[in-house]
Write a structure and sequence with these properties.
Layout (H helix, E strand, L loop, with lengths): L5 E4 L23 H17 L3 E4 L16 E4 L2 E4 L10 H10 L4 E3 L11 E4 L6 E6 L5 H11 L3 E5 L12 E3 L5 E3 L6 H10 L4 E2 L2 H5 L6 E2 L3 E5 L3 H9 L3 E5 L2 H4 L10 E2 L3
Parallel strand pairs: 1-2, 4-5, 7-8, 10-11, 13-14
Antiparallel strand pairs: 1-15, 3-4, 6-7, 9-10, 12-13
């Protein structure tokens, strides 16, 4: 069943690909800024049409990746674990996310270790009493997993990402509802694959084509799953598992190495 959610998004008014900090970015290919904004608006409207609330973070000139709002923090039950970006190009974004939470009734905690928010953390409140899955290998430091566990008071399961194309957890795994996930096994180490099989025996499994289409970079509310239109195979798998896919075209944002989930942070009050 769907559950109403609250999200934070940041419009891509300054979105470009000026540098390459992941394998999907190519600064030699121009971004259509108008199209990127139109696609972002369609994503926002898809979420609000489903009954969800979307708050907006103002974009800042000179920070083209702020549209990927999921990376700015990770919240559970009103407590916010802030981000500390690995790459200097994105590091200033953290302060604007911190300011957003400072303006509300949030308990914001400053991080000491490198982590990229919901890019590498996923929360499943209905799994094992409330479980955090956390990725490492390319961006977030393993030490941040222990820090997040201390800050948020939830058990954290560390998962080792081994394919540079899937540099964030949210490119290789997503929560479909409060207790189940979809993931691309080959993005993880053999040991992490075993952990996922044990924790989620009923998970939806993706193949490489699904992952390359950013079909794992999705937002689910328990029934509806908002995902990239390119991920047709993933949409079919989700439909067969009982979910309702909601396709949204995000081809321009994919040029920056992100899709639906990258652009959406969940606010868990």
């Amino acid at each position: 069943m769907p559950r109403t959610r609250t999200y934070l998004m940041c419009p891509p008014r300054h979105f470009t690909v000026e540098y390459a900090i992941n394998p999907w970015m190519d600064p030699s290919v121009a971004v259509d800024g108008g199209l990127a904004l139109k696609q972002w608006e369609q994503l926002r409207d898809a979420l609000t049409d489903l009954g969800h609330t979307v708050h907006t973070l103002d974009p800042e000139p000179g920070l083209p990746d702020m549209v990927f709002a999921a990376n700015g923090a990770f919240s559970v039950d009103g407590v916010v674990y802030g981000a500390r970006f690995r790459h200097p190009q994105r590091a200033p974004e953290a302060a604007f996310h911190r300011a957003f939470y400072a303006g509300g009734a949030w308990d914001f905690r400053e991080p000491h270790h490198v982590n990229e928010g919901e890019g590498d953390f996923a929360y499943l409140p209905g799994a094992y009493g409330g479980l955090i899955l956390a990725g490492y290998g390319f961006r977030t430091e393993p030490a941040a997993h222990a820090e997040a566990q201390d800050v948020l008071g939830r058990p954290v399961v560390s998962l080792h990402l081994v394919d540079a194309s899937y540099y964030h957890l949210d490119t290789a795994l997503a929560a479909l509802d409060d207790a189940n996930v979809v993931y691309y096994p080959e993005a993880f180490s053999p040991a992490s694959q075993r952990v996922l099989r044990q924790l989620f025996p009923d998970a939806v499994l993706a193949d490489r084509a699904d992952a390359e289409a950013f079909g794992l970079n999705l937002v689910g509310d328990g029934r509806h799953v908002v995902l990239n239109t390119e991920a047709t195979g993933m949409a079919g798998k989700l439909r067969a598992a009982g979910y309702e896919p909601v396709p949204v075209e995000l081809g321009e944002l994919k040029r920056g190495g992100g899709s639906v989930k990258c652009a959406v942070a969940e606010l868990r009050a």
